[in-house]
Amino acid sequence: MIVHFAKEIGAERADSIAKDINAFLIENETDYILISSSSVKALSDEYSQLAKEVHVFDNDMQLSSRKYRKQTKEVKIGDVTIGGDTGNCILIGGPCSVESEDQIQESSALLKEMGLTTLRGGCYKPRTSPYSFQGLGLEGLKLLKKMKEQHGLNIITEVRDATHVADVIEYSDVIQIGAKSMYDHGILKACAKTQKPVLIKRGFGTTLQEFVQCAEFILSGGNPNVILCERGLRTFETKTRFTLDLCGVSYLKEHTNLPIILDPSHAMGHAYGVPDLSRACVAMGIDGLLIEVHPDPSVAKSDASQQLNHDQFKALAKTLDPVAKAVGYQMV
Ligand code: PEP
Ligand code: MN
Prior knowledge:
Layout: E1 2-6, H1 11-20, E2 24-27, E3 31-35, H2 45-50, E4 53-55, E5 75-77, E6 80-82, E7 88-94, H3 101-113, E8 118-120, H4 138-151, E9 154-159, H5 165-171, E10 174-177, H6 185-192, E11 198-201, H7 208-220, E12 226-230, H8 246-255, E13 260-262, H9 264-268, H10 274-282, E14 288-292, H11 310-326, E15 330-331
Parallel strand pairs: 7-14, 7-15, 8-9, 9-10, 10-11, 11-12, 12-13, 13-14
Antiparallel strand pairs: 1-3, 1-4, 2-3, 5-6
Helix pairs in contact: 3-4, 6-7, 10-11
The protein binds phosphoenolpyruvate and manganese (II) ion.
Phosphoenolpyruvate (PEP) is lined by residues 96, 122, 126, 178-180, 201, 231, 266.
């Protein structure tokens, strides 16, 4: 249940009601907002007379639900706004991992040349083998900061565990929570305490309900700036790395009020499929696309097979504009 009380009731009263009904307490400019389990269906007369709004739900997708707020939430990525009625579909590019200053300079120069605003690169990589490249850590974050200062790019970078979440929050414009870290409560709770946007990736074995409930940890903790990211599920199929769940994207668009970004690179796992999939994603009317692109994918230290080279990325970007336009969006 979500209940709004006007700020006039005062912080102390809001706090005592929250404790009484076992609810999270957050606020916006005008209201105190109390969120309790969806199993709570009614308030006492005393509280309901005081309430401005009362919303009852049949499951714990609450703050993220279109039943609560019809309009897709606006989230700012640097000075670019997605969601709301902007119609913006942001094209985000960058290598899987930040590997060296030269590499990330080349990536940044490519984005600038293409008029793009947002660079994504990982410094703490959630690898499936301990013997694989694990990322440059803090040194990588510092390189990203340098790119932001030199090129004015917005930075998206991922947090892998709670030990470095504070550094990632400090150095990024958008915090990425990876598919394997999606359930980490240390990360979710730290991300709830900042107002920085959070891009949360769906785990490859996660239901839509579980995925959205992870987003609810961030929202109910006080950070409204959450973006959902679909990046493929594990299925019986082994020819492709994962299976991009476009049906799930339709569900999320219909039932949640959060912006949605798609990541066809990790879903496909092979560069040859990324352009076709990207166009299919944009044709769904989404808020953004996240593509892995590397100056020389053949020597990439992670996810080499799925990264586009610079020419392939430029060629792809040109084909996205008319697709976006056909569904009432524009690439930004
Ligand atoms: C990544 O974005 O490079 C990554 C590791 O993705 P995921 O968390 O979706 O596997
Ligand atoms: Mn990757």
